[in-house]
UniProtKB/TrEMBL annotation:
Source species of the chain: Lysobacter niastensis
Signal sequence coordinates: none
Annotated ranges, domain HTH araC/xylS-type: 228-330
SMART domains, per the entry: HTH_ARAC
Alphabetized UniProt keyword annotations: DNA-binding, Transcription, Transcription regulation
Name of this protein: AraC-like DNA-binding protein
PROSITE patterns noted in UniProt: HTH_ARAC_FAMILY_1, HTH_ARAC_FAMILY_2
Matching InterPro entries: AraC-type_N, Homeodomain-like_sf, HTH_AraC, HTH_AraC-typ_CS
Length: 338
């Protein structure tokens, strides 16, 4: 069963489609969606259908910044009831924690991880489809919305060091430059925002502790998250942890506040095995990295967690039926330097 997301995730879809001269109805029909389904922001729609709609709309319009255009006009209120909680968090750090804690009110397929590196911090974000579908448009929409959230909390003068994407740059950077008031990097090892560590603890002038406490009680009285597949949760964690070199069952269990045995038991109850999920995520990320002309095979192997080029080659050959160098040649990508 496909994971469901709030229809509010697709807010501004019709506006952008109209601007680009698209007729949305055939696209909606092909994705298995309707105007009625998107009209109620709190309605749950299949995530896979939303991804298909975004990608096909970008393809038919010839606009590879379709998702980012949707993010450009996002308001804090578009986060739904969670916006009342986020706007009253004392710091950006608290808001990010709340975003992760209550992501069932936002988008359950989002994975966010805060990595502190001395005076800088990396806010990593991934849109992890439960059907293994990668989506440039969904990632740019999600990262654009995250950037807007940070701006709402830190004020108009906030300027991060960079916004980073794992995919290649579009032909035209106009929309990226218009939305992001900082360096925009492509072909990077992660999707996310790099900013000053001090930004995480900068006081939010709009914060009201009493209101935050009230809204938290209200939010917690709402129906909780659907019983998300433990496999989907682990997949999201691994998408973040793998390029960091931390894709282990110990790290996943620790991040979920449980011991390894408890995680293994929950996976067993769902007829899942950690090593199988790990291999599935590794294969999906392998295609992402192999298609990126900027990554040498040595870098790809490292990002996938292999300690040596030979072990990466053996795994890739078994998984895809040919050596990585041969795969790139077949795909017309000859950037296979070590």
């Amino acid at each position: 069963m496909s994971t469901l997301i709030r229809a509010a995730t697709m807010k501004n879809y019709f506006e952008v489609a109209q601007q680009l001269g698209l007729n949305p109805q055939p696209l909606l029909n092909a994705a298995g969606l309707s105007r009625t389904m998107l009209a109620d922001p709190e309605r749950r729609i299949p995530a896979a259908a939303a991804v298909r709609l975004l990608e096909e709309s970008a393809r038919q319009s010839g606009c590879d910044t379709f998702g980012l255009r949707m993010a450009e006009s996002r308001q804090l209120s578009d986060f739904g009831v969670a916006s009342l909680l986020l706007i009253h968090q004392p710091t950006l750090r608290d808001a990010l924690v709340a975003t992760m804690q209550y992501r069932h009110l936002l988008n359950e397929l989002l994975a966010i991880h805060v990595e502190e590196r001395g005076r800088t911090v990396v806010i990593r974000e991934e849109f992890v489809s439960d059907v293994g579908t990668t989506s440039r448009q969904a990632i740019e929409l999600a990262l654009g919305a995250l950037y807007r959230l940070c701006g709402f909390l830190l004020g108009p003068h906030w300027k991060p060091h960079s916004v980073n994407f794992a995919h290649a740059a579009p032909e035209n950077l106009l929309v990226h430059r218009r939305l992001f008031r900082c360096a925009t990097e492509f072909d990077r090892e992660f999707n996310g925002i790099v900013c000053d560590a001090a930004d995480l603890n900068f006081p939010n002038p709009s914060a009201d502790p009493a209101m935050a406490s009230y809204v938290k009680r209200m939010v917690e009285s709402l129906p909780g998250p659907a019983q998300n597949s433990i496999a989907t949760d682990v997949r999201k964690d691994l998408y973040i942890l793998m390029p960091m070199g931390q894709a282990t069952i110990e790290q996943v269990a620790r991040g979920r506040g449980m011991n390894v045995r408890t995680l293994q038991r929950r996976l067993e109850e769902a007829n899942e095995i950690f090593s199988h999920i790990l291999n599935s995520v590794r294969a999906e990320l392998a295609l992402r990295y192999m298609e990126n002309r900027q990554y040498s095979l040595q870098v790809v192997g490292r990002l996938l967690g292999f300690s040596s080029p030979s072990s990466f080659t053996r795994w890739f050959s078994a998984e895809f039926g040919m050596a990585p160098r041969e795969w790139r040649k077949a795909a017309g990508n000859t950037n296979d330097a070590g």
